[in-house]
Amino acid sequence: MIHLTNTCKLNNLIHMKRRTIAATITSGGFGLHSGEYVEVTLSPHRGGIVFIRDTTKIPATPENVIDTRLNTTLGSKGARIATVEHLMSALYGMGITDCIIEVSGDEIPSMDGSALPFVRMIQTATIEELEKDARPIVIDKPVRVEGKDGWIQVEPGMFSLSYEISFDNPAIGRQIYLYEGKDFVEEIAPARTFGLLRDVMGMVSMGLTLGGGFHNALIFNDEDVLNPDGQRFEDECIRHKVLDMLGDLWLLGIPILGKFHAYKANHDLHVAMALKIKEAFDARR
């Protein structure tokens, strides 16, 4: 069972207004997968988070996810925008519930492979509180989704996200991280996407990750990270997985009160969890 808190309970648990940005801002960069230069323009809005490709509006909702291989891709009426998760994670971290996002290409630019450039972009626009409350979804019964190797479960409680990964590659290995909703900008936003050298070379040969490199991804061989500047955190890989999941869950557009546990999850499971939560919530309205 999943429901909204009443006003009294909301004030006790979490008090947050819906928020937008106060000015229009534009930035650009190259897509990780396409390698093409893309500009992104964020504008004030009062109707959720909505992407625009040409003239097609694509609301940022779990139902509009059309692909979760390698990234999270939104689509509607033939238009598509790939790799939205890092920008969505930045919007989560800054508490932005309402925003228009116009994109000049089919993929959000990768920037440095983290959410930090998008956080800095939002900070330059300043943030405007709106009149309405961003009333959270409250989990009061366990919800679980499973994949071939991984799973995600959420249980009643204040928000937290415990994430675990386990790679045969000894340079990454087993990592666990607990995020409790604090210090996103310092502890989560800087964490970059990552991959294994053999996988990256294979994808390049298939015409994928054409914009990838040391400037926007951590790349590992079997012994160590290959980036000349090393890692920003000793456990940067698991922090980036947390970053991705926060962005995918922000497709719900409002906070969630629940204790999340994720094991070897991916974009497919992140979005499946968001869908399951939304379907249960919609059924109660």
Write up what this structure looks like.
The structure is a single chain. The chain is of the alpha+beta class and 285 residues long. It has two domains: 10-133, lpxc deacetylase, domain 1 (Ribosomal Protein S5, domain 2); 137-283, lpxc deacetylase, domain 1 (2-Layer Sandwich). It is 25% helix and 32% strand. It contains seven helices and 20 strands. The chain has helices spanning 7-13, 85-93, 116-125, 184-187, 197-205, 236-249, 267-284, and strands spanning 2-4, 17-21, 25-30, 37-43, 49-53, 56-59, 65-67, 73-76, 79-81, 99-103, 127-133, 137-139, 143-146, 151-155, 160-166, 174-179, 194-196, 218-220, 256-257, 259-263. The strands form six sheets. The protein has a five-stranded mixed beta sheet with strand order 3-4-10-5-6, covered by helices on one side. Strand 5 (49-53) and strand 6 (56-59) form a beta hairpin. Helix 2 packs across helix 3 (116-125) and helix 2 (85-93) crosses helix 6 (236-249). The longest helix has 18 residues, at 267-284. The radius of gyration is 18 Å and the shape is globular. The model is unreliable at 1-13 (pLDDT under 50).
